[in-house]
């Protein structure tokens, strides 16, 4: 499954955070269950976070790290 999350401002990041955490937790459980991800490709969730830059802030953007 593929999930795209689009955010534009700080409140959107706050709303997206629990969803992203749940996706990461789900994928960790799947990884622990199956050693070879190619064995169960439909079980993991691929996630992409897109920041539109609507309210761009150097300080906030500098604090975001990609996984």
Report on this structure:
The structure is a single chain. The chain has 67 residues and is an alpha+beta fold. The protein has one domain (2-63). It contains 2 helices and 2 strands, in the order βαβα. The protein has a two-stranded parallel ribbon with strand order 1-2. The longest helix has 24 residues, at 10-33. It is elongated and about 40 Å long.
- Rg, nearest Å: 14 Å
Q: Reading side by side through the largest sheet, how are the strands ordered?
A: 1-2
Q: Which geometry do the CA atoms define?
A: elongated
Euclidean distance between termini CA atoms:
18 Å
Written as H for each helix and E for each strand, in order along the chain, the element string is: EHEH
Structural class: alpha+beta
Sum up the structure in keywords.
single chain, 67 residues, alpha+beta, two-stranded parallel sheet, 2 strands, 18% strand
Question: TL;DR?
Answer:
It contains 2 helices and 2 strands, in the order E-H-E-H. By secondary structure, it is of the alpha+beta class.
